[in-house]
Design a protein that fits this description.
Helices cover about 70% and strands about 5% of the residues. Strands 1-2 form a two-stranded antiparallel sheet. It is globular.
């Protein structure tokens, strides 16, 4: 019995490590059979396809009295348009509402994969995917600012604050670093860190329950129930984080666009 318990214990990958985020690849590619199609890649494709198909089907035959599917789609769009786009950008925010809604839905769905049974990992727990989203938002606010103000005026507004001339040599590098370097980095890291940490914590309590259950001591085995109960409670907390991080990502993107459109520093 003890030998069997030890054998089971040896099969449990505990404690979890960063290697748990590198899942087996699906398809080989290239001369050396480098693997690039992974479960994470497939999840990104599925999320994009699900969002496109759902909104196309919801608005294919719009009704004056909306169906449940149309009502959900309209509610999501209305929430982002009214509470993010218009609230932060005024009437100009309506033009950005479709992008903000798409971004919100994509981040929300890819985050939700982290607690979806069987899937149980978010693409955003890999730094590459939040980085791509942050770069898109970064390019957007620079493009919008240049288009609205012109190249020279946009960078003048972004880099030169209303301050005495003798302190500008110190402030301009700080403004450049905070606006054009720190923003995309923090935008990506915030989403990545939350999803990475959430996944790791759930792994600790879930796998820890198996380790405790396979312990040699009868007094330690009951603690596995506590560990699994904690993993369930933390799953509900992770659900809150999932929604909050999607909202925060969109709000920060909107705030950057708002700053790019502002006439003053």
């Amino acid at each position: 019995m003890i030998g069997q318990a030890l054998a089971l214990k040896s099969e449990v990958p505990f404690p979890p490590s960063v290697e748990d985020f590198y899942l087996p690849s699906i398809l080989p590619w290239g001369e050396h059979n480098n693997y690039w199609v992974t479960k994470i890649t497939v999840l990104v494709w599925l999320a994009a396809a699900a969002i496109i198909i759902y909104f196309l089907l919801s608005y294919r035959n719009p009704q004056l009295v909306p169906t449940k599917k149309q009502w959900i789609a309209e509610s999501i769009y209305g929430f982002v348009r009214n509470n993010v786009a218009v609230d932060m950008l005024g009437h100009r925010g309506v033009a950005f509402a479709p992008y903000f809604t798409t971004l919100f839905c994509f981040v929300l769905l890819t985050n939700f994969f982290s607690i979806l049974p069987v899937v149980q990992i978010s693409p955003n727990s890999h730094i590459a995917f939040p980085t791509v989203l942050a770069v898109i938002s970064y390019v957007l606010f620079i493009y919008v600012g240049i288009r609205h103000h012109g190249f020279v005026k946009f960078f003048r507004n972004a880099l030169i604050p209303p301050a005495p001339w003798f302190i500008l040599p110190l402030l301009i590098p700080i403004e450049f670093f905070s606006t054009f370097i720190v923003r995309p980095i923090t935008l990506a890291l915030r989403l990545f860190a939350n999803m990475f940490a959430g996944h790791m914590i759930l792994l600790v309590f879930t796998l820890g329950g198996f380790v405790l259950l396979n312990s040699e001591s009868l007094f330690i085995k009951p603690a596995s129930v506590v560990s699994w109960a904690m993993s369930i409670a933390l799953t509900f907390l992770e659900l809150l984080v999932i929604v909050l991080q999607a909202y925060v990502f969109v709000v920060l993107t909107a705030s950057y666009v708002q700053g790019a459109l502002a006439d003053e520093h």
